[in-house]
Amino acid sequence: MFFKDVIGQKEVKQRLLLEVRENRIPHAQLFCGPEGSGKLALAIAYARYINCQHPNGDDACGTCPSCVKFNKLAHPDLHFVFPVIKTKTDTVSDDFIGEWRQLLEQTPYFSLGDWMTVIGAEKQQPQIFVKESDELLRKLSLKSSEGGYKTVIMWLPEKLKTECANKLLKLLEEPPAQTVFILVSDNPEQILPTILSRTQRIQIPRLTDEDIIAELTGRFGIQKEDAADIARASNGNYILAMQTIHLNEEKRLFLELFISLMRLAYMRNIKDLKKWSENIAAMGREQQKRFLEYCQHMIRENFIFNFHRGELNYMNREERNFSVRFAPFINERNVIKLMNELAEAQVHIEQNVNANMVFFDLTLKTIMLLKQ
Q1: Residue range(s) defining the domain that contains residue 240
Q2: Rounded to an integer, what distance in angstroms lies between the CA atom of residue 240 and that of residue 257?
Q3: To the nearest 10°, the Cα dihedral for 245, 246, 250, 252?
Q4: Is residue 162 domain-shared with residue 232, that is, in the same domain?
């Protein structure tokens, strides 16, 4: 990953390049912003650039020994930390480094859900476990192999277990010489304040429609008019744009489950709603949370659909086809209550409340609210 491979983000790239040229590289930086904005891609391109032995004005050279090792993400001074599932007592990121590199080689634009699918998380919730701090301390105590920077890219530090985060504080505050931490976060408000206070924050904005259109037309040969529709619907999230192109299996499943929930609730079919709840309860916790987020998205979009302002809607064709008849049932009398019930269900899932109870309770409340 080079800076030239990162979609858009021209101003952020220039800021990072200026820091390097002026020899004022912060030892701990927080790249934060919405999902699909390219934070991880920027972090990798930046790590390559500061370790490149012959950088040009705007990018790494691509040919020096350091760049050659970065091509396979196997540079000895590049260390990745990311959420994993527990497979043993002392699980660390390196236990999944093969899967991680393989996914990054496909694209650095992916979600936590994509990563969980790759490692077969099922019902486990991903975390960065305590052992990771000890492993990092061991790695960073070693001398730099190439004589350059030792770079740690930590993806989703909001998933740090509290004990692990506390053990990392001193390392962030007083890192070994020539060490750079790059924390990449979708939700910085969930990071411990003590961690936040030790980083320099760089806000990564959403991608512009023009950036996404250029990528879709240039890389995939999509017609400009179709690319414009996809870009607007993705709302600056390149991951969503890619999902719209391929309509991945999970999103298709979520749409089918949402339609089934609303139809069964409208018919007050308690027997089938109970089966529906059991089906959702059999999913993993992370997938359940993503489904509830999708439901909130669909409720919001269907409410807006009633105003007949197409430029304000962000749904694909299949979702719009369902909304033509369903949208009138989402109105000012029930939209806020429905959104609150879905949000409350999401909180309960995060707290490991019995999923069968959570989703069956949600179906009963949906029955009542759809009639309002």
Answers
A1: 208-246
A2: 19
A3: 70
A4: no
Question: Are 39 and 176 in the same domain?
Answer: yes
Judge whether 153 and 79 are in contact, CB under 8 Å: yes
The structure tokens listed for 113 are 């859900």
Predicted local distance difference test score (pLDDT) of residue 29 = 95
pLDDT in tens, 283-299: 988 889 989 999 999 99
371 Cβ contact list (under 8 Å, min separation 6): none
Is 240 in the same domain as 253? no
269, 273, 275, 279: CA torsion to nearest 10: 150
Mean pLDDT of the chain: 90
Look at residue 221 in the predicted model and tell me its pLDDT. 82
Look at residue 248 and give its three-state secondary structure.
coil
Mean per-residue pLDDT, 155-174? 90
Q: Which helix (H) or strand (E) holds 28?
A: strand 28-32
What residues are paired with 153 via a beta bridge? Answer: 80, 182
What total number of domains does the chain contain?
3
